[in-house]
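Protocol step 4 of 5: obtain the predicted structure for the target chain.
Materials: sequence only (see below). No template structures provided, no constraints applied. The aim of this step is simply to have a reference model before the mutagenesis design in step 5. Sequence pasted as it appears in the construct record:
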Amino acid sequence: MTSQNRRIVIIEDDPTLREALRYNLVSEGYEVVTAEDGIAGLELARDANPDVVLLDLMLPGMTGLDVCRSLRQGGSVVPILMLTARDTEMDRVVGLEVGADDYITKPFSMRELLARVASMLRRIDMDRSAAHHEDELELMEFDGLSIDVGRRQVLVDGEPVELRHREFDLLAYLASHPGRPFTRDSLLSDVWGYDYLGDSRTVDVHIRWLRMKIEKEPSHPTRLVTSRGVGYRFQP
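Step 4 output (structure tokens):
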């Protein structure tokens, strides 16, 4: 799928930046729709069926964090790139906690932003392509946990568990290498994509989400285990 078939939603209240983003994305062949406040942006992101959402953190009417949270609570799995003028670790982590896939701190170069958007879309294409090859379908079963790679379905004690796109990718990758520890950087490279430009803290947040969904006691995980001094491993 080329960029001409892709729709980007921009939710940004600064008219100068909003227009600059729109101009550059349109120049790359994307279809772009915009909103200037959180309330209108949330409605647009729900109705426009976008491929990526560029979401400012500080918005009138409804903050970017609340927009992101509402989209995720409504079941949306659209990739969200958060635009923020803040650069503290807490702001970055909170954005990831409520469901953002990545963030970029203002001021940023337009080249970097375009690279982030392209990377998100390229990774989605790779995942969709792999899922459509029947020879790559695989069912992994462990004690009380079933991972159907082809159907992208997870069962815990026979009950379906809803995972977001990247949550499933991370779980399936770790489970396909049982017992092997991975660093955060290697997981970013192998799961998010070789050209992923985000923060390794993203991995920690996704592991925390997964533990809440597949572990009996998330605070004392037995499946997604921390490898001290390394990163994480899947314990079958």
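Step 4 remarks: Residues 3-130 form a domain with the Rossmann fold fold (CATH 3.40.50.2300). The two ends are 37 Å apart (CA to CA).
Proceed to step 5.
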